[in-house]
Amino acid sequence: MSDDQYKPHVTMACVVQAENRFLMVEERIHGLPTLNQPAGHLEANETLFEGAQRELWEETGIHASPQSLLQIYQWIASDGTPFIRFTFAIDLPEIPETMPHDSDIDRCLWLTAEEIIHAPNLRSPLVRESMIRYLQPERYPLSILENFK
């Protein structure tokens, strides 16, 4: 194995919709309020679905499961860090209360698609792209991702 082996960070994000609003979390990056979908890194010994559920609960206090796969993104951040991001859709019948359990999250917001797409303070370009992708009708079944433990 060579030292230049590609080792991307694997992350999951959830585009959560209820009553035509979308759940966003606000955190401080370099002291500035920044918006992201509930998202985070895959931990050892968990599936993508378990990781998505865990991150959603930690960052928002909501217990929900991914319902479909929206997109898989490969992205290299401006600092050269490579990411593979699995983005899931969750549609809820009504807006639930939120309570972040992650101290890095300042608050949760329910915003319109337009507010997100045009927000100047998104965590990465994947936030906007995931929102635009959600607005398209295509969804992939979760069965496209097979877990072997």
TrEMBL record:
The keyword Hydrolase applies. Its EC number is 3.6.1.-. GO terms for molecular function: nucleoside diphosphate phosphatase activity; ribonucleoside triphosphate phosphatase activity; thiamine diphosphate phosphatase activity. Its cofactor is Mg(2+). It comes from the Bacteria. Residues 7-133 form the Nudix hydrolase domain. Keywords: Hydrolase, Magnesium. It is an enzyme of class 3 (hydrolase). Belongs to the Nudix hydrolase family. NudJ subfamily. PANTHER family: NUDIX HYDROLASE 23, PHOSPHATASE NUDJ. Monomer. This is Phosphatase NudJ. It comes from Limnobaculum parvum.
